[in-house]
């Protein structure tokens, strides 16, 4: 934050876009014993995805409050609605949505708009590794029958960070090819 302010004189926009996964079922039975997702995997995901969003927002808000202007765009996921094998990821991204709503309400008085996008499946290195049969099942659940291009996700970030979205705060935009319609 200090480097940006030193170079440009102010900080207008923060895009919180970090995210990690540590996939695994929450509960397994092994040798007749109930095993749970490790606390290490739980904490790692929540620390980056939720706590990181909070800490970066907090740091940016120091400058944004002073200048009485700011745009924060957080990145959640359709997985925030729940996803088998991703309880930690789902919880972290649902937390980002809750944090977005709260910060939007609290920081509106400083003219700081806080919004969120929730992408669905997107073409990335991570999704490129998904087996073909699994990908076919995923695409079947998406009305547009394809993954998003990263540029399509970035365009929504750019819109929410722009003055074209000056009267939008506290909202989540699902960029998911219709995957969550009716969910």
Label this structure with key terms.
183 residues; alpha/beta; Rossmann fold; single chain
Explain the overall architecture.
This protein has 183 residues and is of the alpha/beta class. It has a single domain (2-175), classed as NAD(P)-binding Rossmann-like Domain (Rossmann fold, 3-Layer(aba) Sandwich), CATH 3.40.50.720. 45% of the residues lie in helices and 16% in strands. It is built from 6 helices and 6 strands, in the order αβββαβαβαααβ. The chain has helices at residues 2-8, 39-67, 87-107, 125-128, 132-140, 150-161, and strands spanning 13-16, 27-30, 33-36, 70-75, 112-119, 172-175. It has a 4-stranded parallel beta sheet, sandwiched between helices. It has a two-stranded antiparallel ribbon with strand order 2-3. Strand 2 (27-30) and strand 3 (33-36) form a beta hairpin. Helix 2 (39-67) runs parallel beside helix 3 (87-107). It is globular. The N and C termini lie far apart (38 Å). 30% of the residues are buried.
Provide the domain count.
1
Order of adjacent strands in the largest pleated sheet: 1-4-5-6
The CATH class label is Alpha Beta
* Multimeric state: single chain
Query: Low-confidence parts, pLDDT < 50 over ≥5 residues?
Result: none
Please report the distance between the alpha carbons of the first and last residues. Answer: 38 Å
Structural class: alpha/beta
